[in-house]
Amino acid sequence: MRSLDGSGAGGPSGAAVGGAGVGEAGVAEAGAAEAGVDEFALDGNAIGGMLMEVFGTDMTTAVGTCASCGAVAQVAEFSVYMPELGIVVRCRRCNAVLMVFVRIHEVTCVDLEGLASLS
To answer: Quick one: which of 27, 22, 119 has its CA closest to 79?
Structure first.
């Protein structure tokens, strides 16, 4: 993966930057189980603090488009899973992986390959 300052190797879908821990956890919507989201999913607000560290601005209100199904939603509406090894962000419509965040040696590595756009 490459870093935002241009150093390192990797493709255009990856970035690595110094980061901090995950912010306050959000809770999945009440009807999430009906939309194919399990009870372990949080909403995008759960990673608001970490996104602020990585992107330098509030990204929970940013709009992302799933590269798999074309669903358009705010980052706060994405499904977030936070296992011990990293953070996985999935589309609520098709469950495709949109973003992955892994912290390695005080560096947050970012993969945005599942997003067609993020603005």
So the answer is: 27
